Amino acid sequence: MIDLNCSSIIKENPEVLSWNEDIFVLHYRQPQEIRLANMYVHMNLISIVLKGIKEILDHGSKMIVPAGAGFFMKKGSYLVTDKVEDPDDGYESIIICFSDAWLRSQAESILACSNGATSGTQACRDMALLPKDDMMNILTSQLLSCFTMDADPERLQSFLPVKIRELLQVLVSGPGGHHFETQLRSLDTFIDPDLMLLMQSHYKENISLEQYAFLANCSLSTFKRRFNQTFRMNPGKWIMQRRLEEAYQLLRSEMNITQIAYEVGFETPAHFVASFREKYGDTPKQLQQKLVNL
Question: Residue 261 — left, alpha, or beta (φ > 0 → left; ψ -120 to 50 → alpha)?
């Protein structure tokens, strides 16, 4: 079994550009195929595959990345395969490792390029596929040229952060960018994973925001700030939306309207009916009859 440590790869690779321990850019080349190696990633990582195919297994899924596409990986443990299609070419990629601190400093400009398609309730995986994209390939080529040009190191230190920020802006706005944005927002600098679990577990409970904050072990103001960063809406609106979405699904069940109201957390059926009509335009009973007749 082969063990790959991202930190060791950075130290041992002769083609590495870095500064301040916040960003490392590697031109990674592997002449021979590697199968199911243990890989520990100590920093958030983006990689664009230039030659060969990358296969990655995390704790719940498998991803295949062809040449020309890329991938994002959170810090963590993975099983990776570097597949070689042409023995003369081997496997080749550009790898960018960046810290939470650097991402936090650039978050406003990066996420401003969002296409707005991200869902606050979307499940977050540990990795995301970055599909082939012409703009991504242009920026990748520019980064690759930095390893061959005879440039002043100080000029590179000012040039590379700009290009890497541009690359992340392109990835957020490009094809499949909403998946990548979800990953960025799920990092510790944007989302407290425990808050996501807390809300998904207890949105049907009739408890106050102060009590949610207590369970999250933070002040009310901090809870509201974290909540808005995580779900991109205020807590009251998200809880109401989540309850009504579940109620909509339960209309297909054998439960009656009163049972559904209490099941999803409403204190009275009347409040449930009024809130449901405001969101969907029909009362629960009217919509239930339409669903039955479909």
Answer: alpha
